[in-house]
Each structure stands twice: as C-alpha cells, then as structure tokens.
C-alpha cells in the first residue's frame, strides 16, 4: 500500500473521514478546537458540514488527508495555533511567542488502522505547515506509556508516534484525555 497525503480541499473526502453517517447529526466535524465554543455550540446538524465545506474551499485547507489510491483513509487537522482554541487554552501552555501551528486531530478509518497511516498523516501535516511558513508545529497527544487508549479518544495521537516523527517534549499540560495526561510536543521547522 502506498499512502499519499494531500491538502484537505475535497469536501466529500473530508466528510467521509469526519462527517456523520446522518447529515443531521451534531458530530464534531473536527470543529471543537478550530472555532470559538459559542460558534461550535450554535452550528447544528447540516450547518456544521456547510462550515467545513467553506474551510475546504479556503486558500489554506483545514488539514490533510491520506489516500490509498483514490480512497481517503486518514485525516489530520492542522492550522495556525492562533486560529484555534489552543490560542487561549488554560490547560495547554504557550512555550514562547513563536507563531506555531497546531496538529490536534488524527483519524484513520476503520479497516485501515495499524498500517502506518497515522505516521504518514503526521509527516504530511508537518510538510503542510512548513509549506505555509510555519516556524514550528505543536501537537498535544496523550502520554499513555504502554497503556491502551480508547479509539474514540485516540484522536489526539500518542506521544511515541510524535517522538518517532522528531517532535520533542516541550511542556507538560494540565489537560487529560481518556484518563491520560496530554503533553505538548513540538517540532522546529526553521
């Protein structure tokens, strides 16, 4: 299998990865960290998908998609930290004033897991951020050691996958996900 990672500009492919089975459902659509909580709470049902469709048409798409041939098999959300709720987080600290990018969600479709796609998504997100001038990229994965992470809560990624990609531990956080602490991992792109 050869995985190709491309910008997430095709809404139908983004919908296949993060959209609901029922168009009226109020699923995340990977918006909870991307937009202010008030707007996140106001967008209901189809309006959530319409908002994401607009992001896919933007000059800078909302992330990257992994493809196996023509089939979208993975998603990673990546954007300037200043454009996310991480810009104002009380639980995830700022290490410095560098205008870093954030990588906060990785999703691999069932049936395609355990094939290295998450590694490709991390690498693709790094290249996407670098191509858009990011001086560094951060992620906020769980520090689970060897403990199992529930698949629904694995979206933040796990520390060892980011370490394999060259990220280094930059700070501890007070954020906890699925019973595991989250850490701030950073990769300098300068």
UniProtKB/TrEMBL annotation:
The name this protein goes by in its record: GNAT family N-acetyltransferase
Source organism superkingdom: Bacteria
Domain N-acetyltransferase: 1-190
PROSITE patterns found in the cross-reference section: GNAT
Family matches, as Pfam families: Acetyltransf_1
InterPro entries to which the protein is assigned, alphabetical: Acyl_CoA_acyltransferase, GNAT_dom
